[in-house]
Amino acid sequence: MNIKEIDQQHRKFIDMINVLYNSIIRKENSDILAKTIADMRDYAFVHFKTEEKLFAQVGYEETEAHQAEHHFFLENIEKFYVEYQMYDTTLAVEVLTFLQEWLINHIMQSDRKYLTSFMIYGIK
């Protein structure tokens, strides 16, 4: 996206997804699933705060809709966390699919919408 901080954060999300994917392939996903869910939940707060701070800085018009997507993500991650805590360790593929689809769609569609606003304000 050519916004250094956000690009770095997106890469971190992708790295977490790749770790989960590799653990599924190696059939060693139980502990890694718990860590991925917790890490995603924690890191999402950091990433979403970064974006929302920049939205406020530039007066991004679609802030509310974008925040709704953030809430959707957090609600789903929390649901996965609760399900895992209830000893449902078969969630790995479901979690992986959700994370891959959400991240790809969010970056490629929703995040691209704010690029013009950020560029106008010189955010790189």
Q: Helix and strand layout, with pairings?
A:
Blueprint: H1 4-25, H2 29-58, H3 63-85, H4 92-113, H5 115-120
Summarize the structure.
With 124 residues, the chain is mostly helical. The chain has helices at 4-25, 29-58, 63-85, 92-113, 115-120.
What is the overall pLDDT average? 90
For this structure, the CATH topology is: Four Helix Bundle (Hemerythrin (Met), subunit A)
- CATH superfamily membership: Hemerythrin-like
| Alpha carbon gap, first and last residue | 9 Å
Q: Which of globular, elongated, flat, extended, rod-shaped describes the shape?
A: elongated
CATH level 1 name: Mainly Alpha
The amount of beta strand, in percent, is under 5%
CATH-derived architecture = Up-down Bundle
Unreliable spans? none
Number of strands: 0
Category from helices, strands and their pairing: mainly alpha
Helix content class:
over 70%
Q: Can you write the helix and strand succession as a string?
A: HHHHH
Number of helices: 5
Rg computed from alpha carbons, rounded to a whole number of angstroms: 15 Å
Question: What report would you give on this structure?
Answer:
With 124 residues, the protein is mostly helical. The protein has a single domain, classed as Four Helix Bundle (Hemerythrin (Met), subunit A) (Up-down Bundle), CATH 1.20.120.50. Helix content is 83%, strand content 0%. The protein has five helices and no strands. It has helices spanning 4-25, 29-58, 63-85, 92-113, 115-120. α1 (4-25) runs antiparallel to α4 (92-113). The mean pLDDT is 90.
